[in-house]
Amino acid sequence: MPEHTQSEQSQTGAKLAAVKKRAGRSAVIGAIFLMATSAIGPGFITQTATFTATMGAAFAFAILISVLVDIAVQLNIWRMITSSGKRAGELANAAIPFSGHVIAILVVIGGLAFNIGNIAGGGLGLNALLGIDAKWGGLLTGALAIIIFLIKKAGKVMDIVLVILGVGMIVMTVIVAIMSQPPIGDALRQTFVPDTLNFATITTIVGGTVGGYITYSGAHRYLDSGHTGPEHAGPVMRAAANGILVTGIMRYVLFLAILGVVASGVALDLSSQAANPAGQAFGIVLGDAGLRIFGAIFWAAAISSVIGAAYTSATFLSTFHKRFLGGWSLQWATIGFIVVSLIIYLLIGTAPAAILVFVGGFNGLILPIGLTVFMYIGWFRRDLLGTRKYPLWLLIAGTLVTLLTWYMGIVSIGPIFAFLGIGA
Length: 424
Fold this sequence. Notes:
By secondary structure, this protein is mostly helical. The chain contains 15 helices and no strands. Helix 2 packs antiparallel against helix 9 (199-210). The longest helix has 39 residues, at 277-315. It is globular, with a radius of gyration of 21 Å. The termini are far apart.
């Protein structure tokens, strides 16, 4: 073979390796921010404002529990899915026949409920930012999300958008938290020793930050990096931990921003058709500019969560047919999911804020079902993970959280459905 031909082939191979490495790095960063932005979506923001207004500094304890649950859930799910190289539904089916189908159906239903709320959040955000009607704002949010997935390199575009939106949300929220001057001492005390305890509140905030599709969003995106198998457990755990760190900081900072307003004696509107408690809090701190800043944060949270909910829910369709493992089939399924969510949102008449609080609770009820299957895999079917070695502390933590979420879900069913006027 001619020497120049060998040289050209070597250069081509090096270029392909570099492209593959960049694509893998993009997918890893995208996985971190997909999990983070999904966990700090409009539902969480509205839930935080609502519960901080009703519970005050005691809500800090619910945030602490949500972060601890997040750690146990995400580290286990990320490690198991990436070690096996299979999506959640396929891995569950391999362990317990048809359990993956059950999880897939629940996640898709929960993801649909979440996405209706996310689109509603987009409407609220654009209403605060630009003053346009919330229904039109939701329509524009859904349309833009669809356009993102119509782009040929949707995965790369999605990663870039999520990083920009995630960083922007954190910076703007920190500014408002400083300006609202919250009672930090009381907040720190009640983070560990709350004056009041409400399991429905904890279940709702856990569901809104790690329930339903959010449980699997980052792990499914990480599979696209190609860095799968038990030998990559270290980098996977670090990536998951970074995502949890981002979400934990954002949750607490947002809580402090709202707490500063509530502690000053201001009563937020929580129940009217136009209720937007988080927006009110930002407006009180910074006036009209604060309302606009909130609108930008809320809309960024909404569209990133629309993307996350639709993408992750669509990936579960591969449980039923292999064609949805990637490519245009997955992109069109994602677009279809957004379209259905958008149509339902435009047709229903429930107040957007009520939807955003309810969907967190609903996904909190779904969470323990999937966790139970994955804890079974961790204890009894490690052969599916490509290794017999698995951290015992991680299994114990995951099992304790599974039991906790079952208990919270059982005692919270009535109050959660009451958010929509259903049940006691």
